[in-house]
Design goal:
The structure holds 2 protein chains of 2 kinds.
Chain A (H helix, E strand, L loop, with lengths): L1 E7 L4 E7 L5 E8 L4 E8 L7 E10 L5 E10 L4 E10 L5 E10 L4 E10 L7 E10 L5 E10 L5 E9 L3 H9 L4 H17 L5 H15 L4
Parallel strand pairs in A: 1-3, 2-4, 3-5, 4-6, 5-7, 6-8, 7-9, 8-10, 9-11, 10-12
Helix pairs in contact in A: 1-2, 2-3
Chain B lengths: L2 E12 L2 E12 L3 E5 L6 H9 L4 E10 L2 E2 L5 H6 L2 E4 L6 E5 H15 L7 H14 L4 H4 L2 E2 L5 H15 L3 E5 L7 H14 L5 E5 L3 H6 L4 E6 L2 E6 L1 H10 L2 H5 L1
Parallel strand pairs in B: 3-10, 3-11, 6-9, 9-10
Antiparallel strand pairs in B: 1-2, 1-4, 4-5, 7-8, 11-12
The complex binds adenosine-5'-triphosphate and magnesium ion.
């Protein structure tokens, strides 16, 4: 497992784009100083069926008013296995953290998201949200999700939600009733599922590239 | 006069429970048929079966749509052949924009008919014209399909889509529910403008009020999976007065 350390200085804004590629395991240790802003986008959109990857992100908000945004998209196919662990620690007051991770698993792929969120006793007025949404497309595909919140401060705003479901059949029928064939309707729905994450990238060229990758991976989806 | 839809002894069930118990109905060009009936009678089930919803099983009977066996076609082909359902409960589709959705739908139908896809300009022009027909708020077309639309906006959006697709047979499943008085008039006038001597509509409703605007040629009462009575528009007026109780018990 490769280790990466990162220190984000007071007031600094940092945007990290992390692309999973085959057999990558990486641990990121990130420390944020006061008033710093960190945005991470994780993409697991590789077509190599042998992928085995494991990404662990540890983020410590070591100063007041730090902001952490973690977004992730995973579209796992074939026999891919990918796991993401986030470990976000609010150590100081007035920290903000947002996590939005979405996975689609198909074929015999296995995905895992473990979200550890810790608000230390001293970190009053923390504002933390963690959301994980997943769609499992085949009976042999699997998604493991495990939110883990430890809140030791009392004046905080924290929320988390994790759901794993199937494709919305009523939406699928609605689209077919308007003349879209099942494959096109499924593609549109699945791409739409990632839409709210894609729009956070804030770079149209990258957003477009990711949309193309998603469309290619969903090609022939029935 | 040509027949658009011919339903013969249609039986259908869901989860092994029979809901439609022998429906017979013939719809000709230029006709408007109102279907009324108590809650749970099978009105929405009939819409779902005709449009090819996968949850229902047809156990008996046949349906001919414009000379073809409707029940053999996948749902999307039925739509492209000119069958449209304004849903009782329109579905929200987050992340899919109204514009993209409609472009895909219109072009799927055009391709089916052997016509070239519309250019971006042509398409936007069409959207504008059809939007005006039902006075649909411009803002709604930039949003995701039905997402966060009010009940009335959803219904209006259904008729907008109908206008875009110009179906041969439109089934309006309680399109009036959720519409305020002005919206009801606007939507009904929109439906009337779309009505031609070549197409037809099935209007499912609980209320005479809608039928004051969209005047039916026939009124059918559906109860417990069968059409128990057919009449002209005066049947709806009589119902409004007396309710179903008397009719159903016979
Ligand atoms: N999945 C299901 N399993 C069993 N019964 C069902 C199922 N779905 C619908 N039904 C039943 O089918 C019957 C007909 O329902 P339908 O929605 O067609 O009625 P409707 O005439 O449209 O009523 P409303 O006027 O209330 O809209 C109802 O009794 C309903 O409970
Ligand atoms: Mg109904």
């Amino acid at each position: 497992m490769s280790m990466q350390s990162l220190h984000i200085a007071r007031g600094e804004h940092k945007h990290l784009l992390i692309y999973y590629t085959a057999n990558e395991s990486a641990q990121w240790d990130i420390v944020q100083e006061a008033d710093s802003q960190l945005t991470i986008h994780l993409f697991a959109l590789d077509d190599d069926p042998e992928i085995r990857s494991d990404i662990r992100l540890t983020v410590r908000q070591a100063g007041e008013h730090a902001e952490t945004y973690i977004y992730g998209i995973g579209l796992l196919t074939g026999t891919q296995q990918a796991s993401v662990l986030t470990h976000v620690v609010h150590e100081q007051p007035y920290g903000i953290s947002r996590q939005l991770l979405k996975f689609i698993v198909k074929d015999e792929a296995q995905g895992s998201f473990i979200g550890e969120l810790i608000v230390a006793p001293h970190a009053q007025h923390a504002d933390a949200q963690q959301t994980n949404r997943n769609i499992v497309l085949s009976p042999k595909a699997m998604m493991h999700t495990q939110p883990q919140l430890e809140i030791y401060a009392d004046d905080v705003k924290c929320s988390h939600g994790a759901t794993t479901g199937q494709l919305d059949e009523s939406a699928l029928f609605y689209m077919q009733q308007r003349g879209l064939d099942a494959a096109t309707a499924r593609q549109l729905l699945l791409t739409a599922f990632f839409h709210e994450v894609l729009t956070t990238i804030g770079n149209e060229a990258i957003e477009e590239r990711m949309r193309k990758k998603i469309a290619a991976l969903l090609q022939g989806e029935k | 006069m040509n027949t658009i839809l011919d339903i013969r002894n249609l039986h259908a069930s869901i989860n092994g429970k029979e809901i439609l118990k022998g429906i017979n109905l013939t719809i000709g060009e230029g006709e408007i048929h109102a279907v009324m009936g108590p809650n749970g009678a099978g009105k929405s089930t009939l819409s779902a079966v005709l449009t090819g919803h996968p949850a229902y099983t047809v156990t008996e009977g046949e349906v001919i749509f414009r000379g073809k066996n409707l029940l053999e076609m996948p749902a999307e082909v039925r739509a492209r052949e000119g069958l449209f359902l304004s849903f009782q409960y329109p579905v929200e589709i987050p992340g899919v924009s109204m514009t993209n959705f409609m472009r895909a739908a219109v072009n799927a139908k055009r391709e089916h008919e052997g016509q070239p896809a519309l250019s971006a300009t042509e398409f936007l022009k069409l959207m504008r014209a059809k939007r005006a027909l039902v006075e649909l708020d411009t803002k709604l077309q930039n949003r995701s399909v039905n997402e966060g639309f009010s009940g009335g906006e959803k219904k209006r959006n259904e008729i907008f889509q109908m206008a875009m697709l110009e179906p041969t047979l439109a089934i309006l499943d309680e399109t009036d529910s959720g519409l305020d008085i002005d919206a009801l008039r606007i939507v009904a006038e929109g439906v009337n403008k779309l009505h031609t001597p070549q197409n037809a509509a099935i209007v499912i409703t609980h209320y005479q009020r809608l039928l004051d605007y969209i005047v039916p040629d026939f009124v059918h009462i559906l109860a417990d999976g069968q059409i128990i009575r057919t009449g002209d528009k005066s049947l709806a007026l009589m119902l409004e007065e007396k309710g179903y109780a008397e009719l159903v018990k016979r």
